[in-house]
Design a protein that fits this description.
Blueprint (H helix, E strand, L loop, with lengths): L1 E4 L2 H9 L17 E5 L13 E8 L9 H9 L4 E7 L10 H17 L2 E7 L15 H17 L4 E5 L22 H17 L6 E3 L2 H8 L17 H4 E8 L12 H10 L5 E5 L17 H8 L1 E5 L4 H10 L2 H7 L4 E9 L7 E10 L12 E6 L4 E6 L11 E10 L7 E7 L23 E2 L4 E8 L1
Parallel strand pairs: 3-4, 3-10, 4-5, 5-6, 6-7, 7-8, 8-9, 9-10
Antiparallel strand pairs: 1-15, 2-11, 11-12, 12-15, 13-14, 13-16, 16-18, 17-18
Helix pairs in contact: 4-5, 5-6
Length: 469
């Protein structure tokens, strides 16, 4: 895989540069012996999995109905496929979680799986920060017991979990107002109870799922990291705690430090670097001079900030003042489209005169117009189908979509051998399904390229090229 970062200035220059021509006046082929196909991008907000604005849902009682098919379908019409499932364990702050509430959790995940949506997940004990809202959380011992109860459920339904927010500690599970976890930790000993919770969550989730922490300070202090320890391409997407701890900013763009989210410039740099390889999301919590669409009053603006911190998801329900500002100033639709990944196929090259049983070369140029790459594992394969739509053969793609970086064009160059003895009309497609077998065949969990006329909503395939043998 080769990644080419193209600056906007160079792109603009390329548009006006003359095209070199052959002797017959036609455009000089960029790859001799291959046919070039150009694709048209779309402005549609695509209901792709594991990205975008989310709908928040609080579950306080076991009797609450699970996420409905109508709620999922209503979100998809807007291009949204995510929910925040916030499970309130208020009734169990002094006891084990009741079986009927555990069944309620299972039912919500099962409904997401059936209807084609995923969730950001959080557990908490209190829904306020006043004295009357106490207790704000449970003891460390009981929190660890609860995580042990939840582990089998999280393991069973991780396929529909985008990310698990650390939660449990403090009001709303946001790690601030707390009864049992040292309100303002300073020393290593102060941080240990919180680290025990995170370690238990890392163990409760499969190795290819991440845990999101409320501020960069918590990861840096609990695990002894500094700015020099940020994730790199060589350490990303592994089973290590470093690679599995992301962040969520729940007072995004509210002030110069996002209301205490950042304690220093190094912490900002740390999250900016880490979020290229870990999931970043959250919610806004109030209007400020920092949440305008573009630069204003010394702030560089929402669009630039989301690109810098590689935002994958955001709350559509809060804060409405901020959401309305984005709509009024004209950047809401762009944010809606660009949260997370947005893979656009620029062009492709295919061997001319393909022959059954012979090598067939494919070159694809994929641009990521999103703020982030896909973060969870994603299968990628080439699929050959005949005129009836029957799959003739598949080949694993030699490129990982998690490294199709924002603001870059990824070149995929692969040679396959066409099966012997086949003939007739053939279609080659790109399939980007979820790797979990429970949902792999459901096209609602597959990635649709941001192009016109390529997507098949019955199969989840993106059509690349048709040819005859």
């Amino acid at each position: 895989m080769k990644i080419f970062r193209r600056q906007l200035l160079l792109l603009a220059a390329a548009v006006v540069m003359p095209v070199a021509c052959g002797k017959d006046g036609s455009a000089e082929p960029e790859l001799p012996g291959m046919e070039k196909v150009s694709y048209t991008a779309t402005d549609m907000n695509i209901p792709n999995p594991e990205r975008g604005f989310y709908t928040p849902i609080e579950i306080h009682e076991a009797s609450k109905s699970p996420v409905s098919a109508s709620a999922v379908n209503a979100g998809r019409k807007l291009g949204h496929t995510l929910f925040l499932l916030e499970f309130h364990l208020t009734d169990y702050v002094g006891s084990e979680i009741a079986e009927n509430y555990l069944d309620c959790i299972r039912a919500n995940f099962a409904s997401l799986r059936e209807n084609g949506a995923k969730a950001i997940v959080r557990f908490c004990y209190s829904n306020g920060s006043e004295a009357s809202d106490k207790p704000w959380d449970a003891t460390e011992e009981l929190v660890l017991t609860h995580i042990g109860q939840l582990k089998p459920i999280l393991q069973e339904y991780y396929d529909v979990i985008l990310v698990l927010q650390a939660g449990f500690v403090g009001s709303w599970g946001e790690w601030y107002y707390t009864d049992n976890f040292v309100f303002n930790p300073k020393t290593d000993a102060d941080y240990q109870p919180r680290k025990h919770v995170v370690d238990a969550l890392l163990d409760a989730m499969p190795d290819d799922r991440q845990i999101a922490l409320r501020t960069p300070e918590f990861k840096m202090k609990m695990y002894g990291h500094s700015l020099a320890d940020t994730i790199t391409v060589s350490t990303a997407h592994q089973a290590s705690e470093k690679a599995r701890l992301g962040g969520h900013n729940d007072c995004y763009l509210a002030s110069s430090n996002d209301t205490g989210t950042y304690g220093s410039k190094d912490e900002r740099r740390y999250w900016a670097a880490e979020s290229l390889y870990t999931i970043m999301g959250g919610e806004t919590c109030g209007t400020s001079s920092y949440c305008h669409c573009g630069p204003q009053d010394g702030a560089h603006g929402t669009l630039a900030d989301m690109a810098e911190y590689h935002f994958t998801y955001l709350n559509i329900g809060y804060h409405q003042g901020v959401i309305q500002r984005w709509k009024t100033e004209g950047c809401f639709n762009e944010i809606d489209r660009r949260l997370g990944y947005r893979y656009v196929l620029e062009n492709g090259y295919f061997s001319e005169k393909p022959v059954a049983g012979e090598d067939f070369r494919i070159v694809l140029n994929v641009r990521n117009d999103g703020f982030a790459p896909a973060q969870n594992p994603r299968d990628a394969e080439l699929v050959l189908t005949d005129a009836s739509g029957k799959v003739v053969k598949t080949w694993k793609l030699n490129s990982d979509p998690r490294y199709w970086m924002p603001g870059a064009v990824t070149k995929v160059d692969q040679t396959i051998k066409l099966p012997s003895g086949i003939s007739g009309e053939m279609t080659l497609s790109l399939n980007l399904p979820d790797p979990c077998q429970t949902i792999r065949s459901n096209p609602r969990f597959s990635i649709q390229l941001a192009n016109e006329g390529l997507w098949n909503d019955k199969t989840g395939y993106n059509k690349l090229y048709s040819f005859s043998l």
